[in-house]
Amino acid sequence: MVTLDGSLKEAVLTDWRKADLSARERAMLEYAEKLTLAPRAMRRADLDALRREGLDDRAILQVNLITSYFNYINRVADGLGVGKSDDE
């Protein structure tokens, strides 16, 4: 999703399910959310949903790697207290 639309950005940050997204974008976000919250629950059906929206294996790998990297680096930062004050 490449956009300069600030309202779309806000909608995605607030609740991506209510944002004006394409079926393809929605499928990618559903995949990313499940991979983030329930990685052990991932199944072939999750990949098939992306394929139905036109993603090939390379695109699926990219979604997976980007999601996984953000999850990893956020956990590293949180574990080290990066950006946290003593009050938090």
Summarize this structure briefly.
By secondary structure, this protein is mainly α.
Helix content: 55-70%
What is the architecture at the second tier of CATH? Up-down Bundle
**Euclidean distance between termini CA atoms:** 33 Å
Q: What is the count of structural domains?
A: 1
CATH superfamily: AhpD-like
In DSSP terms (H or I, runs of 4 or more residues), the helix count works out at 4
SSE sequence, one letter per element: HHHH
Classification by helices and strands: mainly alpha
Strand percentage, roughly?
under 5%
CATH topology: AhpD-like
Shape: globular
Count every beta strand, where a strand is a DSSP E run of 2 or more residues.
0
Q: Average pLDDT value?
A: 91
Can you walk through the features of this model?
The protein has 88 residues and is an all-alpha fold. The chain has a single domain (6-80), classed as AhpD-like (Up-down Bundle), CATH 1.20.1290. It has helices at residues 6-15, 23-37, 44-52, 57-80. The radius of gyration is 15 Å and the shape is globular. The N and C termini lie far apart (33 Å).
